[in-house]
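FORM 7B: Structural annotation worksheet

SECTION A. Query
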Amino acid sequence: MNPLIRQDPLDDFFRGFFVRPVEYGAAGEAPAIKIDVKDQSGAFLVHAEMPGIKKEDIHVSIDGPVVSITAERKQEKDEKEGERIVRMERYFGKVSRSFQLGQDIDDSKASAKFSDGVLELTLPKKEATQSRRLNID
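SECTION B. Predicted structure
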């Protein structure tokens, strides 16, 4: 016994007609800096993905255990005569990321390297100071 299924031919015609167009994220939304932090003996190793950003536009600051990375992507004019941009899916502006590590960083020995859109920070741990007891006179 074969069940009969009634199908409206207009269903196929209108299928997908009222679907929203695909959106690739909100316009003007700043991309997040994606980081990986490894705890090695004596130092933290940080990899931060920063594609499309120039080395000169990256700033790193260290304050105790807090590391802040700030970058700015600037728009470069590349318009040709007779062309107009309909949609541009690139972000131009500032983006920053701060995170706290488990131990103070020795900022005098810290180093940074940037290649192929990846910022690599080597952040040596500061030697733990021994607490001492004060005698009261």
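SECTION C. Observations
The mean pLDDT is 79. Residues 9-14 form the longest helix (6 residues).

SECTION D. Sign-off
Analyst initials: ____
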